[in-house]
Amino acid sequence: MADQAGIAGGANGTQAPGGPGYGAQPPAGHGYPGGAPLPSGKATASMVLGILGLVLIPIILPIIALCLGISAKRMADRGEGGGRGQAVAGIVMGSVGIAFAVLGMTVATVQALAWV
Known about the structure:
Layout: H1 41-55, H2 60-78, H3 84-114
Helix pairs in contact: 1-2, 1-3, 2-3
């Protein structure tokens, strides 16, 4: 209730809605604080298989890493999971692993034909 001077609350000390003061505080949440979502299993697997594909099995693992990386990146872009950076790392390492495998097979084929 406002008095004649236009001051909200009058003598009882209350303020009118929208007047000066602090706004409503958001409720305290529980659990994981806001921010980036946790990485998905696909993104992590893509990165790990990309690393192993460069070191151990240079034909099969990079292909799997590339496929998982593309899938995980699409999921992260839609907001269904995190780990976009890991997915991109898997895509890059998978692509490099495939390129090395193709280069190695090409060099081996050229050398084999040079001996004939």
